[in-house]
Amino acid sequence: MLDTPTKKSAPRTLRLHQRDNVVVAVDAIDPGAMAQGVTATARIMRGHKMAVQKIAKGEPVLKFGQIIGFATEDIAPGSHVHTHNCGYAEFERDYAFAKDARDEPLLPPEARATFEGFRRPNGKAGTRNYIGILTSVNCSASVARFMAEAVNRSGILEQFPNVDGVVSFVHGTGCSMAGRGEGYEVIERTLWGYAGHPNLSAALIVGLGCEMIQIGRLKEKYGLIESDNFHSLIIQDSGGTKKSIEAGVARIKEMLPLADKARRESIPASELTLALQCGGSDGYSGITANPALGAAADLLVRHGGTAVLSETPEIYGAEHLLTRRARSREVGEKLVGVIRWWEDYCARNGGSMDNNPSPGNKAGGLTTILEKSLGAAAKGGTTTLEDVYRYADRIDTKGFVYMDTPGFDPVGATGQVAGGCNVLCFTTGRGSAYGCKPTPSIKLATNSDIYHRMIDDMDINCGDVLDGVSIEAKGQEIFEHILRTASGVRTKSELLGYGADEFVPWQIDPPM
């Protein structure tokens, strides 16, 4: 409920649920100002919270009708509620497995949207047409970069207008690690997912030769066969750096004519797999951009497509809202199992799930991981949770699904893209500078200030939700922008050249 007093100078506030004992400041509130019938006793910055009733020490602080923390001291009405008087603590969650699951009514085929994409020989649909250079190990990273730079500098791409570019995907691991187990398999799955991604028309994978991640083993495990659109190269076998660069550039030049033959055609929106991401969140994220993106995700699901929520540390404390929507108890328990793994992971490394939010998140009004998670989970919309995937698993289920990833945006997005996401939406309140090749990233600003201040980075302003635009209308706007982007319209991050350095596979195992 938006409180808009008659005096123009009076600050606007939001009470998001009738149970809430705090309100969110849409405008800054000065001491002595009235809001929701309460006089502010301190300055409340935009996006921050003010108590509207007494909250005794130890009592829960409620926002969205949910627990976001507990009072660490008595809090009087009109007080600023933040890290100085509200803290994180565990509480019992009712997972209510599958209680709210329902069959989603899909639109009839004739009513479903389409986009102009690339139909690949294996039937997958791409939204971009890159040639990718992958690396098995950090030791081959520079050679891969040099190859891409040599091709992009040469001017040869001007002869192939249907190719979006040649991009190197390099990482900092691949050796000095266990040769089997979880960490090894994560890197393998990620490389496999990128090598066969529908936004790549061809791929070259470059190794040093003596590393732990062996290209031959990768090819055998995943059935990768040398062909016109897939090559591999070993630096030690090719005669070193210069000869490897020359050989790699020659192979890419051989790939270009075939890649250039790709043409866009009308493809149902059901072939879109949307990655849902957020970064640099603020107090508005869970009010504007995240629920609006959730509405767009619901629309995509109705059109037969797939929406992928991730970042497990940033749904912690809100996972019970997702387990209620699980298709079955089994799916819900898979999500709880992921949560338990992260609890153990933090305990083993002397950390806490409340290490998140970041200093920037807190400056923007987010106090605890519980508050941040409730806002982040809103990106997932309202439809039934169909399945839960490991990091970089190939996504093969339609509808709303979940992938276990860290909360660090580039790492999370890398897993989603490896799983097959061919378009991505990224919400931000503080102003993240991010892009993602080969998958275009649409940036959604949570507030009008950051949208205008970082206009060269932001694609959509969700701040106008605070001025009366409905979540449904903004969701429709986002959905239509997704279709245009999938059809080839460049995002702001693409125009700026972002995307190659944001390939960051999850490194679970410590270096040996």
Question: What report would you give on this structure?
Answer:
The chain has 512 residues and is of the alpha/beta class. The protein is 29% helix and 19% strand. It contains 14 helices and 24 strands. The strands form 6 sheets. A 7-stranded parallel beta sheet has the order 20-21-19-18-22-23-24, sandwiched between helices. Strands 1-2-3-6-9 form a 5-stranded antiparallel beta sheet, with no helix packed on it. It is globular and about 75 Å long.
Quick structural summary:
This protein has 512 residues and is of the alpha/beta class.
Query: How much β-strand is present in the residues?
Result: 15-25%
Q: What kind of sheet is the major sheet?
A: 7 strands, parallel
Average pLDDT level? 95
Q: Please give the radius of gyration in angstroms.
A: 24 Å
With strands numbered from the N-terminus, the spatial order across the biggest sheet is: 20-21-19-18-22-23-24
Q: Spans of 5+ residues with little confidence (pLDDT < 50)?
A: none
Question: How do the strands and helices of this protein lay out in sequence?
Answer:
Blueprint: E1 2-3, E2 13-14, E3 22-25, E4 34-35, E5 38-39, E6 49-51, E7 60-63, E8 66-71, E9 80-81, E10 86-87, E11 114-119, E12 125-126, E13 130-135, H1 141-154, E14 165-169, H2 182-195, E15 200-207, H3 215-222, E16 230-234, H4 235-238, H5 241-260, E17 264-268, E18 273-278, H6 289-302, E19 306-309, H7 319-323, H8 329-348, H9 359-363, H10 369-377, E20 385-389, E21 399-403, H11 409-418, E22 423-428, E23 441-445, H12 448-453, E24 460-461, H13 471-486, H14 492-496
Parallel strand pairs: 13-14, 13-15, 15-16, 18-19, 18-22, 19-21, 20-21, 22-23, 23-24
Antiparallel strand pairs: 1-2, 2-3, 3-6, 4-5, 6-9, 7-8, 8-10, 11-12, 11-17
Helix pairs in contact: 1-5, 2-11, 6-13
